[in-house]
Amino acid sequence: MKGFIRKNQFLSLCGLNCALCPMYIGSYCPGCGGGEGNQSCKIAKCSLENGQPEYCCQCPKYPCGKYEHIDEADSFITHRNQRSNLELIKKIGEEAYNGEQRKKQELLSFFLSDCNDGRRKNLFCLGVNLLDLKSAENIAEKVKNHPDFYNLSVKEKAEIVSEEFKKAAEDKGIELKLRKTVK
User: Fold this and answer.
1) Cβ atoms within 10 Å of 162's Cβ, excluding its own
2) N or C: at which end does the chain have fewer Cβ atoms within 10 angstroms?
3) pLDDT score recorded for residue 4
4) Who's near 88: CB < 8 A, 6+ residues apart?
5) Distance of alpha carbon 30 from alpha carbon 18, whole angstroms
6) What is the CA radius of gyration of the chain?
7) Cα–Cα dist 121/119, whole Å
8) How far apart are CA 35 and CA 45, in angstroms?
């Protein structure tokens, strides 16, 4: 959207966790943070009309009607944490939030570079995005401390990481699948 600029590439205006998005990791962002030629967005348009706050939670009208059904379905990234991400940034501040996201981004980088058999990118992005930082750190430690870690094939590592994500998600009642739009 012309004239719309994002300062923080870790979290979008509406609360999407950009740093853990499969598109962002692939160096392609079609959304509000993607620079020139990014997609038109009703929330970005609203931001431009209302003094361009960095996050919707900084707007006196938040939460407005645009948030009524915002987290019910996913796009290429999970929308489930949009509101909680915005509440967290209000609670702990942008710097602390970005610090947590950097740690999560490092963990995701490890999973993708050392444990991805080419079929797990979305699962790993979802897992790191939806699970809390401590859970993701525990999974990474468990994998790194596996007695045969350096002797395992990438496919074997991917299977171990996948199972650990599924167990942690199940323990927390989290489904590791993108939710399609219901018509």
Assistant:
1) 20
2) C
3) 73
4) 97
5) 11
6) 17
7) 6
8) 15
Residue 39, C-beta contacts closer than 8 angstroms, at least 6 positions apart: 1, 30, 31, 32
By three-state DSSP, how is residue 6 classified?
coil
Please calculate the CA angle 48-49-55 and round it to the nearest 5 degrees: 55
Residues 6+ apart with CB under 8 A from 2: none
What integer pLDDT is reported at residue 48 of this predicted model?
A: 84
CB-facing half-sphere around the CA of 60: CA atoms within 13 A: 2
**Tokens (6 digits) for 41:** 């967005």
Structure tokens at 3: 């004239």
Regions in the chain scoring below 70 on pLDDT:
1-3, 27, 30-31, 33-40, 182-183
Other CB atoms within a 10 A radius of the CB of residue 21 amount to 22
pTM flag (> 0.90)? no
Per-residue pLDDT tens digits for 115-152: 999 999 999 999 999 999 999 999 999 999 999 988 99
Q: With contact defined as beta carbons under 8 Å apart, do 50 and 59 qualify? A: yes
Distance CA 121, CA 43 (A): 28
- In angstroms, the first-to-last Cα distance of the chain is 27
The structure tokens listed for 66 are 């645009």
pLDDT at 5: 73
Instruction: Specify the pLDDT at position 46.
Output: 86
Cα separation of 168 and 160, whole Å?
12
